[in-house]
Design brief:
Layout lengths: L2 H10 L3 E3 L14 E4 L2 E3 L7 E2 L1 E5 L2 E6 L1 H5 L7 E4 L4 E4 L1 E6 L1 H7 L3 E2 L6 H14 L6 E6 L11 H5 L7 E5 L4 E4 L1 H6 L12 E5 L6 E7 L2 H5 L7 H17 L2 E6 L11 H9 L6 E7 L5 H14 L6 E9 L30 H13 L3 E6 L2 H18 L7 E4 L8 H7 L2 E4 L8 H16 L5 H6 L3 E4 L10 H10 L19 H7 L2 H6 L17 E4 L16 E6 L2 E5 L1 H11 L15
Parallel strand pairs: 2-7, 3-8, 9-16, 10-11, 11-12, 16-17, 17-18, 18-19, 19-20, 20-21, 21-22
Antiparallel strand pairs: 1-7, 2-5, 3-4, 5-6, 8-23, 12-13, 13-15, 14-15, 23-24, 24-25
Helix pairs in contact: 3-8, 11-12
The structure holds zinc ion.
């Protein structure tokens, strides 16, 4: 072993003090790991606060006082002195697209840029930093950044002229190509619009403008080289490591028509074999209106094959009831407010076909996710779950509706009465320019007053779970938590929040990312709270989110992530204190922490 490697191993051990203590009394075997002197928020309703946790193998064996944990210390027990720091269960992102997130890691991320100039500057510097990549690729642009709401090829040619460039909109429903990319895709003024897609054209010349809508994006997308083999595997590992560094120990993959997780199964199995699958995954398969049977059969087969797998599970199908409000493709009960001539948006499924598919999947014992964003789409989804109950009888089915960006007031109580889970993504409500200029304009003030209606669904007794929808928005949970509790952008706008009456409490938001999220995948018995017997998925944070203003969330970092009781992420800050620990330092507040019980 080379000296650097020795040093690295030493640092990775973190704030560990191995103490030769007495064996635990009472016949209990000693713990492998103790985290003590912390403010531990457990997410368990019966005991929300503790100061120590003990772990044996992959399980939590004790939650309570420091003295109680001390009794489980043996000669080989590692002890992490939290020094008053905040610990909690690992986050569970209830709605993510893991492979497309992984593949987005080598593309420029435009989601934070609000003006054309800023978007162009970011693409220019990304292209300059990647001079040999044959394509310049990116994602995340917002409609509100472009005059008229859509980008043009000349705006992209201005920053990338030498190579094809293609930028996907943040919602994945529109694309932006430069002239070289349009040429490679063979898109000219003579190209016909594909079914369910639009090549946006100059009204005078008929030339393609560079903006592509819905299925027309595939004309360019299909020409883009996608990393395969080892390169693809390395991107997956980067994605898993990113999630660990953000304190995410579980994800629920909401399906992907282009890059279904099931198609990359060998990569996940390799990661698992190599001990690098450091995030637990439950994955959905997308069922198409033109033949939902295929996804139902495949989800059933994979569900059975991976039933006992704690790291990668299937058994869920996902249907897209409608589109998005920004592109007027979400199904609404009343016409769009910005231009009623655009109508109400068309759902992707006929109501009876949706009911039949949900009933069929439910009959096979599968869980169903339904993407529904417009208030009419949400109602269709609720009706489909009601049909499943009527036709297949009562059972613990935990049907989910994803997004729910608008909802009719009379549908709030149906989440509780039907046992349907509201799966929502706080950052989709981020009240930025895109929200005000496009989303709120299209939805209109009346529907916007029930937009992203977290608190109202909670108040009506519905169960809510939170996620990111990464890579649609960042996977950073703290950004999501901040928006959930303030309804403000991270810049603090609007100062009073956008419909702050729909925000939720911090404790509620944390539960939606932990214990409620575990319920959403039928796994509340093994994870989601720090309770004896549950898996030891634990994170330690740099800040205590319950202390100080909500802005504390925006500067919070994950110091340590444990999965199955093993370190899968330790920040440099945390490892730095290992050096002090090695010199006998026991944390700035050691022994003085008095957690609220
Ligand atoms: Zn999604």
């Amino acid at each position: 072993m080379i000296p650097q490697a020795k040093l690295r191993l030493f640092l990775l051990l973190g704030c560990v003090v191995v103490a030769a203590g007495a064996f635990a009394t009472g016949g209990d075997a000693p713990a492998d790991l103790i985290l003590t002197h912390g403010r531990v928020w457990t997410a368990a309703p019966e005991r929300s606060w503790a100061e120590a946790i003990a772990v044996r193998g992959s399980r939590i064996v004790y939650v309570g006082t420091a003295a109680g944990a001390e009794a489980l210390r043996g000669p080989k027990t590692e002890t992490i002195d939290l020094g008053g720091r905040f610990a909690m269960p690992g986050f569970n992102d209830s709605h993510i697209h893991l492979m497309s997130g992984a593949l987005s890691l080598e593309r420029v991320d435009l989601i934070e840029e609000q003006t054309l100039e800023a978007v162009q500057a970011r693409i220019r510097s990304f292209a300059a930093a990647n001079p040999t990549s044959p394509w310049v690729l990116g994602r995340g642009w917002l409609y509100g950044s472009f005059p008229g709401g859509l980008p043009t090829k000349s705006q992209l040619d201005a920053v990338v002229a030498d190579r094809p460039a293609y930028m996907e909109c943040y919602d994945g429903h529109s694309g932006w190509a430069n002239s070289k990319a349009l040429a490679i895709a063979g898109i000219t003024k003579d190209t016909k619009d594909p079914e369910n897609g639009i090549i946006v054209r100059d009204p005078t010349t008929g030339e393609p403008t560079g903006a592509l809508k819905e299925s027309a994006t595939a004309l360019v997308d299909s020409k883009i080289p996608v990393p395969e083999g080892e390169a693809r595997y390395q991107l997956l590992l980067r994605a898993l490591q990113l999630l660990s560094s953000e304190g995410i120990t579980s994800v629920q993959d909401a399906g992907d028509a282009v890059w279904p997780l099931s198609a990359d199964l060998p990569l996940f199995e390799r990661a698992q074999k190599e001990g690098k699958l450091n995030v637990r995954i439950v994955a959905a398969l997308v069922m198409e209106p033109k033949g939902p049977e295929a996804a139902i059969a495949e989800a059933k087969r994979l569900g059975a094959a991976h039933r006992d797998d704690r790291l990668l599970r299937f058994g869920t199908v996902k249907g897209f009831v409608d589109g998005v409000i920004e592109a007027h493709t979400a199904a609404m009960l009343e016409p769009y407010s910005d231009d009623p001539a655009l109508g109400r948006g068309l759902p992707n499924w006929l109501p009876d076909a949706l009911k039949a598919a949900v009933v069929a999947a439910d009959k096979e014992g599968l869980q169903v996710y339904l993407h529904a964003i417009g208030d009419s789409g949400v109602r269709m989804a609720l009706d489909a779950y009601e049909a499943a109950r009527e036709q297949n009888g009562p059972r613990d089915r935990r049907g989910r509706i994803e997004h729910i960006e608008t909802i009719a007031a009379q549908d709030y109580p149906r989440f509780a009465s039907l046992g349907v889970i509201a799966s929502m993504q706080p950052l989709h409500a981020n009240p930025d320019r895109n929200y005000f200029d496009v989303w709120a304009r299209n939805a209109g003030p009346e529907r916007a007053s029930r937009g992203f209606s977290w608190a109202n669904i909670e108040r009506a007794g519905g169960r809510l779970v939170f996620g990111s929808d990464w890579p649609v928005v960042t996977s950073d949970v703290f950004r999501g938590l901040y928006c959930a509790v303030t309804r403000k952008t991270r810049e603090g706008t609007p100062p009073e929040g956008s419909h702050p009456e729909l925000a939720v409490s911090l404790e509620s938001a944390l539960r939606h990312y932990t214990s409620d999220a575990a319920y959403a995948s039928f796994e509340e018995g093994i994870k989601g709270s720090l309770t004896e017997g549950r898996l030891a998925d634990v994170i330690v944070l740099s800040e205590d989110p319950f202390k100080g203003p909500p802005e504390t969330l925006l500067k919070t970092k994950v110091l340590l992530t444990l999965m199955d009781g093993k370190r899968v992420h330790a920040s440099p800050t945390f490892t730095a204190c290992a050096r002090r620990a090695a010199r006998g330092w026991r944390g700035e507040n050691a022994g003085r922490a008095r957690p609220r019980q």
